[in-house]
Design goal:
This protein has 17 helices and 19 strands. By secondary structure, the protein is an alpha+beta fold. It folds into three domains: 163 residues, FAD/NAD(P)-binding domain (3-Layer(bba) Sandwich); 226 residues, D-Amino Acid Oxidase, subunit A, domain 2 (D-Amino Acid Oxidase, Chain A, domain 2, 2-Layer Sandwich), CATH 3.30.9; 139 residues, Helicase, Ruva Protein, domain 3. Strands 3, 4, 5, 6, 11, 12, 13, 14 and 15 form a nine-stranded mixed sheet that branches. Strands 1, 2, 7, 8, 9, 10, 18 and 19 form an eight-stranded mixed sheet that branches. Strand 16 and strand 17 form a beta hairpin. It is globular.
C-alpha cells in the first residue's frame, strides 16, 4: 500500500467508494474480488472513525430474540461466523455471563429458555471454522458459587447463578478494517487515505465520479468512475445535502455510542452483563433494563455501552468529563462493590451510528434496526450512485455487498458476487491459531519478547513474518519503542506497507501503542523521529505531528472537550 493521490485522476474506474471505515473497506474488498477497477478514498485514516471506537464486539444477534426478529438474529450470527472464518487472528469467541436472580423474568428458567431457543436458531454457527477451540459454544449455566468466584462484586441477594452465551470480539477493530483494505489492494484496489470527497462529478443526471481534496499534499482531484458508492458513514449525508439534485435533504437521526477502557486487569475470560438504567423500547420480551457490559480486552476492561442522540457535525462527537462521571456513577450503582474510579479510565471512545429516536429527551432511545440503503436512481432520478449508511460493524460485509448489488444493476454484464464469507483476509489463512502461535514462539528470536510476538500474531496473522524480517535485517528496527512491547519494525512496516502517513496512524491504528491508553511522551517522540526519517518530515512537521497526536490522545482520555478541530488546525 503506497499513497499516490496523483494516480487517482488517471483514467476512469469502474467504481469509486467514498469512506474507508468498515463498510467502505468491505465494499472495496468485495468489488476488487469481482475484478472491478476500484478506487477507495477516506478523508482521514482507514478505520479511524466509528469503526475504531466501537465496543470491539462481533454480535451474533442474541438481543434480537427479545425483538422477536429471527431474520436479523440469523443474519448477525451468519456475519459473526464469517468474521471468525476469514480473520481468525483478529476475531475470537467471547463468553458472556448474565447473572440470574430469583424465579421471574430475571431467573434461570426464562433466561435459559431464551438461550436454548437462540442455540436452536443458530445451529450452523460453526460451519467452516476448522478449529474447535474457536467455535461459538452452546449456552450453559453456572452455579451460584461459580459465578461468585468469577465476579465477587455481584449483588448476592437472591442470586441463583448465571447463564453463559458466546459472542465474538475483535482484537483490533482498525486493523480488521485495514485487513479488508490491504486484501482489496492485493486484488487490484487503488486506495488513498486523507483524501476528502467534496462533491460529485456529473454528466447530466448521472454521477460520473468524485471531486476530492488531498488533505496531505493539497490540491483538488477529479476521480472519474462509472459508478459511485457513498459509504462515508455519518458524513455521507453531508455530501447529499450540498447538491440541489438531491432536493431538500434532511439528515437522519444518529446515536453517539460510547464506552470506556479501564486500567483494571480482567478477573477471567468472561464478560459480565448487568442491568443498566435505560430500557430497550423495541424489545417485545425484556428483562428490567438494557444490559451494560464489563468485558475483558487484552489486559484491560471495557465498560459500556451508552447511547445519546447526536445532531451536531460528526467531527464534534466527543465524550465530556461530566459524562464519564455520570457513567461511573451508573456502573457503581449497578455494582456497588466495583468501586470504579475516574483515574482508572484510560480511554473514552465514541462513534456515531444511524439510529436513535428519543421519546423522553435523551434518556430512552428506540434503537435502529438496519443499515440505510439509498438507491438514488429510484429516489432522486440520479443514476450511478448508491449511498450506504451502515449501522453495525458486524454487518459491514453483508450490507456493503447488498449496496454493491444495488449499484451494479446499473452496470450491464456486471461480474458475479465473490465468496467473501470464506475467503481469508490477508494474514488470516490460519486453520489453528494456537498451533501457529506455538510454532512462532518456539522459533522466536531472543530479542523479541513473547508478548511482543503474541501482539504481532494478533495484528498480522501469518503476515507477522514480514515485520520480524525487518527487525532481523536492521538493528534499529529490532528495538522496542520506549515503555512498550512494540517493535520499531512495526513502525517501519506501517509506513512502507500500510500507508501510515501521520503519527496518529502508527500509534493508534497500526500498532498497539495507543490503541488502549496513552503510550507516553517518550514513545511518541521515538515513533515521530522514526517516521521523520522514513517520510522526510521537517523538524517543524515532526513537532506538529507530536502536538496533534497529544491533542487527540487527550481527547480520548476524556479530559479536554472540543479538541478534534484543534488537532485539525495543527495538521493544516
Amino acid at each position: 500500500m503506497e499513497r499516490k493521490p496523483d494516480t487517482l485522476a488517471d483514467g476512469e474506474f469502474d467504481l469509486a467508494i467514498i469512506g474507508g471505515g468498515a463498510f467502505g473497506a468491505t465494499a472495496a474488498w468485495n468489488a476488487s474480488l469481482r475484478g472491478l477497477k476500484t478506487v477507495l478514498i477516506e478523508r482521514n485514516d482507514f478505520g479511524g472513525g466509528a469503526s475504531a471506537e466501537c465496543f470491539k464486539m462481533v454480535h451474533g444477534g442474541i438481543r434480537y430474540l427479545q425483538h422477536m426478529d429471527v431474520q436479523r438474529l440469523r443474519s448477525s450470527c451468519r456475519e459473526r461466523s464469517a468474521m471468525l472464518r476469514i480473520a481468525p487472528h483478529l476475531v475470537t469467541p467471547l463468553p458472556i455471563v448474565v447473572p440470574t436472580y430469583g424465579h421471574g423474568r430475571n431467573g434461570k428458567m426464562v433466561l435459559g429458555t431464551g438461550m436454548r431457543l437462540y442455540d436452536a436458531l443458530t445451529l450452523g454457527r460453526n460451519a467452516g471454522i476448522p478449529d474447535p477451540k474457536r467455535h461459538i459454544r452452546s449456552s450453559r449455566f453456572l452455579a451460584r458459587s461459580e459465578i461468585l468466584d468469577l465476579f465477587p462484586d455481584l449483588e448476592t441477594r437472591s442470586l441463583t447463578g448465571g447463564a453463559v452465551f458466546e459472542d465474538g470480539q475483535m482484537y483490533s477493530p482498525p486493523r480488521l478494517v485495514l485487513a479488508f483494505v490491504r486484501s482489496a489492494v492485493r486484488a487490484g484496489l487503488v486506495a488513498c487515505n486523507y483524501v476528502e470527497a467534496t462533491g460529485f462529478l456529473w454528466q447530466g443526471d448521472r454521477v460520473c465520479g468524485v471531486r476530492a481534496r488531498d488533505r496531505i499534499g493539497g490540491g483538488t482531484l477529479d476521480i472519474r468512475a462509472r459508478l459511485v458508492l457513498n459509504a462515508a458513514g455519518p458524513g455521507a449525508e453531508y455530501l447529499l445535502e450540498s447538491d440541489a439534485r438531491f432536493g431538500q435533504w434532511k439528515r437522519g437521526n444518529f446515536s453517539r455510542d460510547a464506552c470506556f477502557i479501564v486500567r483494571r486487569p480482567p478477573r477471567s475470560q468472561y464478560a459480565l452483563a448487568v442491568p443498566g438504567q435505560t430500557r430497550d423500547l423495541n424489545a417485545v420480551v425484556s428483562r428490567t433494563a438494557r444490559h451494560m457490559f464489563l468485558v475483558p480486552w487484552r489486559e484491560f476492561t471495557l465498560v459500556g455501552v451508552w447511547h445519546k442522540l447526536f445532531a451536531q457535525h460528526p467531527d464534534a462527537a466527543e465524550v465530556e468529563e461530566s459524562e464519564l462521571e455520570a457513567w461511573l456513577r451508573e456502573m457503581n450503582a449497578c455494582l456497588p462493590a466495583l468501586r470504579l474510579t475516574r483515574d482508572e479510565i484510560v480511554q473514552a471512545n465514541c462513534g456515531l451510528v444511524p439510529f436513535g429516536v428519543g421519546t423522553r429527551g435523551q434518556e430512552e432511545l428506540s434503537f435502529g434496526k438496519e443499515s440505510r440503503f439509498i438507491d438514488h436512481s429510484a429516489t432522486h432520478g440520479v443514476r450511478g450512485l448508491v449511498s450506504l449508511i451502515g449501522i453495525r460493524y458486524t454487518t459491514a460485509r453483508a450490507d456493503s455487498a447488498h449496496a454493491l448489488d444495488l449499484l451494479l444493476r446499473q452496470m450491464p454484464g456486471a461480474p458475479p458476487a465473490p465468496d467473501t464469507e470464506r475467503t481469508p483476509l490477508i494474514g488470516g489463512d490460519i486453520a489453528d491459531f494456537e498451533a501457529l502461535r506455538s510454532r512462532a514462539q518456539a522459533q522466536r528470536h531472543a530479542n523479541v519478547p513473547p508478548e511482543t510476538l503474541d501482539a504481532l500474531l494478533r495484528n498480522h496473522g501469518t503476515e507477522h513474518r514480514a515485520v520480524l524480517e525487518l527487525a532481523a535485517a536492521n538493528a534499529a528496527d529490532s528495538r522496542l519503542v520506549p515503555g512498550s512491547k512494540t517493535l520499531a519494525a512495526e513502525i517501519t512496516h506501517a509506513v512502507r506497507n500500510e500507508m501510515a502517513v501521520r503519527l496518529e496512524d502508527a500509534v493508534m491504528r497500526r500498532t498497539d501503542l495507543a490503541s488502549a491508553c496513552y503510550p507516553g511522551r517518550a514513545a511518541l517522540e521515538f515513533v515521530a523521529a522514526q517516521m521523520q526519517s522514513l517520510l522526510g518530515w521537517s523538524d517543524a512537521m515532526k513537532h506538529n505531528e507530536i502536538q496533534a497526536a497529544e491533542v487527540t490522545l487527550e481527547r480520548h482520555r476524556g479530559h479536554s472537550p472540543a479538541t478534534t478541530r484543534a488537532a485539525e488546525e495543527i495538521h493544516s
